[in-house]
């Protein structure tokens, strides 16, 4: 058996990490993936009840409003609830916070303006150079909407309603500029408690689904801890977390809500309701939909291609291995997986490399806190969900908002099935004699099938 106790390069395994010696691993699916259950009412009624609860139990509420369909649903339900009982009148006019991301359709601006003109809405229209992720370019990992130094290249004229300064927002130097999550702290200072109503839905991603499965009570209310600027007085509330896309549009039709006409253009262009997007598609996950901008919003796209570094390349290659989608590049024979990860990490801007490397180290540390089992190239570990392909994806694309979690790889099959795939791949590696390439910090197990927990060991060995 090959001794790989020193195979991981310095720095990959965070200092102080203890590799567990006694196994207590179980399939993630079996213990954490709760089944869906029938609700006591329809999703619209439940959303109204949730917002009423939030308004009763927080000093202030604010709607985080992008101009998209989901925040439209939250806004209209919140207004309905606020008007439904005298005890909620203290929340009127309803505070609505809109961060204008510059590279958005003109139809979105027009819709936000119509919302701002409602007498029961107090809309704050921020056009600040907030720090945004740019996944189009490894050399330019960020961009700043409405940055004053780029005024001649702005995608749209500055709206007359724009708020362009705030005492707590540093414009200079650019490196000091806050992200939107960071700026929400100064927007909602203590001593008041504030709930930010957000149009987050579990259907949109596995991460969002997991966020509302972790708490059995008030699962849609989450403490706001992002950005280190909140002071323990802010909560995020997801009142429509269990809605589907069909529910959003059904509610808009039944209640005759106004909505963003950009969706009409996307519909006419043949973009499916599940792919329609109004915010800039330059983040890691939305990048796949970048082509939609060129098709549906040519005026903004023409400026966007000059505004955000790498947009032209991402338009052509976003759904290829160049950006970490679909097939992964093959690892050269004889190279260890940690060295392969380091190779792709080095392609990023030096400013971004420490953050991506830390994200990878966190994932590796979580794995070894739960198990002594090696990380394999393809098969996710049945207890942690981690494999080297997942880490390669992080190294190629980054995960600046930490929206990708390894355990989401364990949501498509049973725990027994994951154990079967994991042990079979490990057996193949041992037979081929390529175990040293795994970078495992201890000797590899001699019998892969002995790793299977007793409750799944009934399956026959090959």
UniProtKB/TrEMBL annotation:
- The answer to whether UniProt assigns keyword Transferase to this entry is yes
Under the heading InterPro entries, the entry gives:
DUF3440 (IPR021845), PAPS_reduct_dom (IPR002500), Rossmann-like_a/b/a_fold (IPR014729)
Provide this UniProt record's keywords sorted from A to Z. Transferase
Q: Where is the Phosphoadenosine phosphosulphate reductase domain?
A: 61-264
Give the highest taxon in the source lineage: Bacteria
Name the Gene Ontology biological process terms: cellular response to oxygen levels
Molecular function (Gene Ontology), one example? transferase activity
The protein depicted here goes by the name Putative phosphoadenosine phosphosulfate sulfurtransferase
Species annotation: Thermomonospora cellulosilytica
């Amino acid at each position: 058996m090959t001794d790989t106790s020193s195979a991981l390069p310095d720095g990959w395994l965070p200092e102080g990490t203890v590799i567990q010696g006694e196994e207590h691993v179980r399939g993630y699916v079996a213990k954490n993936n709760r089944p869906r259950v029938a609700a006591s009412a329809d999703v619209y009624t439940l959303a109204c009840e949730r917002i009423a609860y939030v308004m009763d139990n927080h000093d202030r509420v604010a709607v985080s409003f992008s101009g998209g369909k989901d925040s439209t649903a939250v806004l209209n339900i919140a207004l309905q609830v606020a008007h439904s009982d005298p005890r909620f009148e203290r929340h009127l006019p309803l505070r609505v916070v809109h961060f204008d991301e510059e590279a958005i359709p003109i139809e979105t601006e027009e819709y936000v303006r119509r919302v701002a003109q409602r007498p029961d809405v107090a809309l704050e229209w921020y056009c600040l150079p907030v720090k945004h992720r740019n996944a189009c370019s490894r050399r330019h990992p960020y961009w700043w909407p409405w940055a004053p130094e780029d005024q001649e290249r702005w995608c749209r004229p500055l709206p007359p309603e724009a708020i362009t300064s705030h005492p707590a927002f540093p414009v200079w130097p650019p490196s000091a500029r806050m992200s939107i999550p960071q700026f929400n702290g100064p927007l909602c200072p203590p001593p008041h408690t504030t709930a930010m109503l957000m149009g987050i839905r579990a259907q949109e991603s596995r991460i969002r689904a997991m966020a509302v499965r972790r708490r059995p009570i008030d699962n849609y209310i989450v403490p706001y801890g992002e950005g280190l600027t909140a002071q323990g007085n802010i909560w995020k509330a997801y009142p429509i977390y269990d809605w589907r896309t069909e529910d959003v549009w059904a509610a808009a039709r039944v209640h005759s809500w106004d909505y963003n006409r950009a969706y009409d253009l996307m519909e006419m262009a043949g973009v499916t309701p599940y792919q329609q997007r109004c915010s800039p598609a330059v983040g890691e996950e939305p990048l796949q939909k970048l082509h939609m901008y060129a098709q549906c919003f040519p005026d903004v796209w023409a400026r966007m291609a000059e505004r955000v570094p790498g947009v032209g390349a991402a338009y052509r290659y976003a759904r290829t291995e160049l950006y970490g989608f679909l097939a992964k590049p093959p690892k050269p024979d004889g190279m260890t997986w940690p060295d392969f990860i380091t190779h792709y990490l080095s392609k990023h801007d030096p400013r971004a490399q420490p953050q991506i490397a830390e994200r990878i180290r966190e994932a590796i540390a979580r794995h070894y806190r739960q198990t002594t089992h090696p990380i394999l190239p393809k098969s996710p570990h049945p207890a942690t969900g981690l494999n080297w392909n997942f880490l390669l994806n992080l190294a190629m694309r980054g995960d600046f908002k930490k929206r990708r979690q390894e355990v989401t790889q364990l949501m498509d099959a049973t725990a027994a099935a994951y154990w079967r795939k994991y042990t079979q791949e490990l057996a193949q590696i041992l037979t081929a004699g390529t175990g040293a390439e795994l970078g495992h910090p201890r000797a590899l197990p001699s019998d892969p099938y002995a790793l299977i927990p007793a409750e799944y060991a009934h399956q026959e060995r090959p």
